[in-house]
Amino acid sequence: MITQSFDFSNDVFDLFALFKEEPHLFFLDSSLTASTNGRYSFIGFDPFEIVEGYDLESYQRFKNRFLHLQQLDGRSSLPFHAGAVGYLSYDLGMLFQGVGSSNDRRENGLPLFHFGLYDVVLTVDHLDQKLHIASNGFPEVESGARQKRAKERLQKVVERVGHLIPLAKNYVKAPGSEHSRQAVFKSNVTRDEYVRAIGRALNHIQQGDIYEINLSHQVVVEAQSNATNIKPWELYARLRELSPSHFSAFLNAGNHQILSASPERFLCLKKGIAQIRPMKGTRPRGRTPEEDTAFRQELLHSKKEIAELLMVTDLERNDLGRVCEFGSVRVKEMRTIEEYKTVFQATSMVEGKLRADRNCFDLIEACFPGGSVTGCPKISAMRLIDGLEVSKRGVYTGAFGYIDFSGNLDFNILIRTLLLNEGKISFHVGGGIVADSDPLMEYDETWVKAKALMECLSSNLPHPRGEAG
Hints:
single chain; alpha+beta; ten-stranded antiparallel beta sheet
């Protein structure tokens, strides 16, 4: 592997814009930077291999291919220098957990997982204001050929970066309001149908079948709007502006694109230490400083949200305990209130030391999907979700991120995420249901979470079509 580093104080989107037309472009984007959660952003394109599939057998082939390449690669001081970038769908998580589905059709024809294997990765360290470009020469394995490819690929990227100019932002045409056409958003359930589903979930909670469950609904952009007529990366520019986040992401997977403003880290593994960061509890930002403070305090002291996050945190402790050293799993943070542009969120952090006889895939399979998007107990909640929700989740509440050839990994949970597929734009929104949930309030909260996505897609929004009445 060879690396070159440069001083870099530009907006990372300037760098992304240089490569906007490249095939299979990814952008793991800390659009809300911080010294910990949002320190790094990563960019890559033109992978040497694409791996995707529709069953566990194809997933196993991906694992085997990755682990073989990992044996041939070396360590790096960078958090991500080369490896796999892509997503795991929620429906793959159902297979991991042995949950059979009552609906076996493939949602929108998308694969259960999709990864590109990338030999060149651009890393922006927002804290140190550095750009690191790493090239490892894969898929060549003979030392001479590998070194030659690594140098050639690195040089091409360095030459492109050298042309970075202050006007790079002018390439971005974020959706404006002057000529936009009104978008209409249609949920796959009405308000009454969603409330009835919550009622059924509450019955199961009262009977002791589960303690908590996450229920969602899908929203489709039904009418033409300006958002359907622009390129995916342009739409992403608008999304990151409206809803900056530590774990934002963009992926052009060829026939579909994922645009995410996720605030939630699912799973991180660095130097053998695994972390899960569940998020439970949401309030909108206020229109005045006083209202903002009131919403924050309401979330901080809500008995419902306290119980909700506590249950999920305990679930994540159990998941990590399956693959981590005995006694190493601990709750590092409990009920941190995080501030975002449109919402407040309550989070916790659980960590543990991965056992020496376990690898990154064992960790993923033990913990995926995240407990914050299923419920407790996880398997029982997932079975009920399959019966209560109208359609498969697909990429929603799946995970998107990287697995480095050195063994590190970092994934978000795919919430606050747009899916562009075959000319259709859709997204899901949902929330956690516990014993004292108010069904109507829960329904309203889902639309609070949708605020930035809806603003991104239309500057002049009608009332959501899901609210029938």
